[in-house]
Amino acid sequence: MRPSRRILTGVVATVVAVALSALPAADRPEDAEVPAAVDEPGVVRVMPLGASSTVGVGSPATAGYRLPLWQRLAADGVRIDYVGSRSTGPDALPDTDHEGRSGWTAARMVPMTGGWVLAAQPDVVLLHAGTNDLLQGASARATAASLDRLLDRVFAAAPHTHVIMAGVWAPLPKQRAERSRLAEYLPRVAAAHRAAGHSVEFVDTATLFPAGRTADGLHAGPGAYRTIASVWADRIEVHLGVRPATGRR
Predict the structure, then answer these.
(1) Ramachandran angles phi, psi of 124, nearest 5°
(2) Phi-psi category of 137—alpha, beta or left, where left has phi over 0 and alpha has psi -120 to 50?
(3) Residue 227 phi/psi, 5° resolution?
(4) How many CB atoms lie within 10 A of CB 61?
(5) What is the reported pTM?
(6) pLDDT tens-place string over residues 181-193
C-alpha cells in the first residue's frame, strides 16, 4: 500500500471509530459492515433512503426514480455510486444499490438508520419517508418527529453528508389534512438541523404530479418517477455546483 493511501485509510478508520462511539448501540453495525476503503475520486456516493418508492414499486423497469436519475446525472457528467445494503433493479441500471424498505415507516427506520449510513458513508442522502406513517394513522406531528430523529441518526453517522429530504408525493386522499400539515412541519425540521450546522434541504413534492400519474393510486408511475428523478438531479447538481446540460433549467 502506498504511504498516501495508508494515511488516508487511517484517517477514514479514525473518523468511523468516532462516528461509532456517537451512535446508540442499536445503530452500530457489525465490524464487517464498516467501510475499509476510501472513496473513488470524482465519484459522488448517493444513498437512496426510504420505503417502497425508493425500491421502485410502480415502475420496476426503471427501479422507480433510480434509473432516470442515473441517466440524467451521467448525461450532465456527474459520476455517482449508489450506496446502501440492498441491491435490486433492472439490468439497464448499472448500479442497483439502495436503502429502500417497502412498507417501512420513518419511525421503524430510525433505530436502523445510523448503521446503514455508517456502513455506506454517503456524500448525498435522498430521503423520502413518512408516507407509510400517515397511512398507518400517525399524525403529521409524530411523523415529523420521526424524521427529525432519523436525521439525527444520519448526521451522527456521517456529519458531513448532504440530505435532500422530499415531502410526501403520494396523493393520500384519506390523509389529506395530515399530509398538508406534514408539508408545513418538514421545512422547520430541516431549518433546525441547518441551524445545528447540518447540510439538509427540504423539497416540497406535494403537487409534483397529479393522482392520475400514479401506477396504483399510491405509487408513482414511470412518467412520474422521471419527474421525481429530475427534482433529485436538480438539487444534487445545485449542491455540487454543476452546470446542467444545455437546454435544462
Answers:
(1) -135, 135
(2) left
(3) -65, -45
(4) 13
(5) 0.85
(6) 999 999 999 999 9
